[in-house]
Design goal:
Length: 388
């Protein structure tokens, strides 16, 4: 039976009735976890209050009562957003600023980022104004969506009425790569967000999937089966100079880049069970990455600071784990799959299963706090966090 597929990618706003306004926080025992920074919020209301609370709580802050807080965050959002931060212990004024332009939500995100950058120790950039892409299952089909990091402002990037998957950001938030079956084969496409246009990137016979753009934006790693079994390939970002890196009879999947662009980590069944491997971007120096304590390892993502690789392990259930970039003892974090690092190398977007469907959630790794992003209707999975 033949089906018709949309040729043009449509940028569609998600209907309000397709959104779930509730953002669930998953309870985790924090007795031995990293210390939260205690803050109190005064003077804010509505959407601004909710956005500030979400932004701060997923980045290592604990919103509490004034008498328990070290920092008082006060002001109002009657027209623009007025933001003040005072250190109650040292009696010091740290921030006093008015945020104008954009929407109340974007003003709240800007204020939250400034709070993080002022108070966090060690210093780090805020993530409240970053973007994610993800897959949404709509029955037997799936589409690629883009949203703010907290799930708000979601828009559909595809309307292919078929299977689409594996979203991955290109440089400067301008491009998103993904795989679509719209031409009756799993092919890689690249979507230009600035012009709302797309073009084929890899359409070889067989599987074309798992595109991952190098940190400098010049190369793309991917999985192709044009030579028989799925192997890791690398090309320039314009799809030229294609080079095959692995040559095994087993399946490879999920390539990701080291921050310096010299090494690729990927999953392979070369040794039987799925395991993580690293290989030079030129094809040399392949070795298995030690993940002691974790088995059936897939879906790696290299932290932007280069220190840690996060991945999915299947040990009687999917588990998000980390391992030092050089290999070693794996650390389990939370039940879930599809992990993707934020630009701060601290927060992770991932998929968890709840109520019979998949939802995209955020994990603050040091404190283990988990919050669901705002969901669109259907199952949401495969989040990809824009690193730029």
């Amino acid at each position: 039976m033949k089906y018709k597929y949309a040729i043009v990618v449509l940028l569609l706003l998600v209907r309000p009735e397709g959104l779930n306004s509730a953002q669930e926080e998953v309870d985790i025992d924090r007795d031995k976890l990293a210390k939260f920074i205690p803050v109190a919020l005064e003077g804010y209301s509505g959407e601004v209050l909710l956005a500030l609370k979400f932004d701060l709580e997923i980045q290592g802050f604990d919103v509490t009562n004034v008498d328990k807080a070290q920092y008082l965050i006060s002001g109002n959002n009657s027209s623009s957003l007025v933001g003040r931060v005072t250190d109650r212990i040292n009696k010091a004024s740290l921030i006093a600023k008015e945020y104008t332009g954009g929407t109340p939500r974007t003003q709240a995100h800007a204020f939250a980022d400034e709070i993080v950058e002022k108070l966090a120790n060690p210093p780090r950039k805020g993530i409240a104004r970053t973007k994610i892409a993800f897959k949404v299952d709509t029955g037997q089909n799936s589409e690629i969506y883009m949203a703010d990091y907290d799930g708000h402002g979601a828009v559909a990037l595809t309307q292919d009425n078929t299977i689409t998957r594996d979203p991955a950001w290109g440089p400067g938030r301008g491009l998103i790569f993904y795989t679509s079956y719209k031409a009756f084969n799993p092919d890689i496409f690249v979507h230009d967000l600035r012009g709302a246009t797309r073009r084929p990137f890899a359409r070889y016979p067989g599987l074309n999937a798992g595109a991952a753009v190098s940190p400098d934006g010049q190369r793309v790693a991917m999985i192709l089966s044009k030579g028989g079994s799925p192997d890791v390939y690398v090309s320039d970002v314009d799809a030229t100079n294609l080079k095959q890196l692995t040559r095994t009879k087993e399946d490879e999947s999920s390539p990701c880049w080291s921050p310096d662009g010299r090494t690729i980590c990927y999953a392979s069944r070369e040794s039987g069970r799925a395991a993580l491997y690293v290989i030079g971007a030129d094809g040399g120096g392949k070795r298995r990455l030690l993940t002691d304590g974790a088995i059936n390892c897939t879906e790696p993502d290299w932290s932007p600071d280069g220190k840690t690789i996060i991945f999915t392990a299947n040990m009687g259930g999917f588990q998000i784990c980390t391992v030092p970039a050089g290999g070693g003892r794996a650390t389990p974090l939370v039940a879930g799959e599809d992990p993707s690092w934020a630009p701060n190398s601290r927060t992770v977007a991932f998929t968890r299963r709840a109520g019979g469907k998949r939802v995209v959630s955020l994990l603050d790794v040091p404190t283990k706090r988990v919050k669901d992003v705002r969901q669109v209707s259907g199952s949401c999975s495969q989040p990809s966090w824009a690193k730029y």
